[in-house]
Amino acid sequence: MLLRKLSPRLGVGEGQILSHSHRYAETKAIEDRSEDRRQRRTRRSSQALCLVLLLRHCHHHRRYVHHISPPPFRPDQRPIFQIPQNRHLSLIPIQPPNPNTPIMEVEVKLRLPDADAYRRVIDLLSPFHVTTHRQENLFFDGAANELSSRRAVLRLRFYDNDTRCVVSLKARAVLVDGVSRVEEDEEELEPSMGRACVAEPEKLLSVECRILKRVKEEFGVLGFVGLGGFGNVRDVYDWKGLKLEVDETRYGFGTCYEIECETGDPEGVKKLLEELLKDNGIDYTYSEASKFAVFRYGKLPE
């Protein structure tokens, strides 16, 4: 009825009015869909900006890691980085590493029978030589054997005429088939202070040092005694990406020769070293005791 009344006044037919109405409705629907998409893009942009700022803050402080579930999308859609409404960003606090947590040192240890085998290894590896260190190793126990009774030992190692000193705490050593595993904690110490402690072991109680504090607190050490030590000449080589250390260890009762290599793949490295020695006709055996154990035993391995 309304169209019939308007048609004569507007000078158009009823069909034209309906056509215009349909086009207007379609245009309005398109505009509404465009506005809806624009609002969704704005929300996604805001969410992404907040996430970037948050992750930058977390990365700066290095206190959290983030876990984000990927948003679902249809195969015909390009995935859009967003946080779905039914998902959330979870921040998991990470505790800072405990400096008192010991590191498990894993080494391959092959013993050379004599000076001749040692010299042949040195000559064989000479193209890969990196450096040579002259070490002095001195050991300490608690006055009441607090360390040795728990299979631990404290060591001061001096390098190259006191250019460097490292204090080490080693514990629970296991050596099987030429593979050594031992808990090790190390820290640099001023060489002059180290020498003062060698002269008077009781000074170890007053030295500001994380490891010495740990020894006192965890092992209940109230006093220290010196156990003596030995010298070592260590040649370092970079061979096939491995750091090889060839040692000439001088005790008061004789000299030992050994190849060491710290690695995360002891069996693989041991195989490589054995092939090297066998191919060049160099005798060797698996080490059965640590240098410190040989020192305490007071006799060279058979």
UniProtKB/TrEMBL annotation:
Pfam families: CYTH. This is CYTH domain-containing protein. Residues 103-299 form the CYTH domain. CDD domains: CYTH-like_Pase. GO terms for molecular function: pyrophosphatase activity. It comes from the Eukaryota. It comes from Rhamnella rubrinervis. InterPro entries: CYTH-like_dom_sf (IPR033469), CYTH_domain (IPR023577).
